[in-house]
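Wait, mind explaining this?

_____
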Amino acid sequence: MNNFKTWLLMGSLTILLVLIGKLILGQSGAILFFIIAVGLNLFSYYFSDKIALSMTRSKPLAEHEAPEIYDIIRHLSQQAGLPMPRVYRIPSLQPNAFATGRNSAHAVVAVTDGLRQILNQQEIEGVIAHELAHIKNRDILIGSIAAVIAGAITMIANVLQWGLIFGGGDDDDGGGVLGLIGMLLMIILAPLAATLIQLAISRAREFQADATGSRIAGQSDGLANALLKLERAAHQVPMEVNPATSHMFIVNPLSGGSLVRLFSTHPPISERVQKLRQMKQ
């Protein structure tokens, strides 16, 4: 169901882009900005691991420093049919983790110091399995495609905005006031709609990673219990992290603030735990 929802949302983004291109810039204009957005996001996709590790100040974690983590990752990778990913350490006392890398051959699993201190083995297994599920489900690729389309829509809207500022207000085309109002609504609403759809895709992939991770781990209790601990810790232990990377973590590291649910990259923990509990029934 989550896979169907993801591709339905991806289709919605594509349709939105095509409609904007045809209605306002024409087909050639839409194609141009789509190509630019593809180029920017391909760069981000191919260097996603280096960018994410740099922005989170993550460093390689040697096996002799955390043999228990390596044992868990190695075992679960075999269970998932994945090659052993590189392992990194995030210097933070907040328990959290993320995975990055454009494919399974370039994958990285990064864990915070706090994760190793607060969670028990079953809970760590649940978290690691969730991150391996993101790699197995190619969620980084899916997120990059969604970003391409949403970025193209936003780029078109920005060009329209500057076009209105610098001489776009002439009424020679007969559009009149209604045409101007329609243009303004498109400039405001199109990027907003694209962002909401992109965030919905992110939330759907989190649910999917929870389900896939539970199957990899062979149980759902570990992840469910871990999520509850991680949520509490996110409110109690701050993490100094760039907000642009918050969507990568298993639990939003900035959730100590009051965030509007509609604009969250993560589903509510209560819903995730409920779905995990239902898997046992």
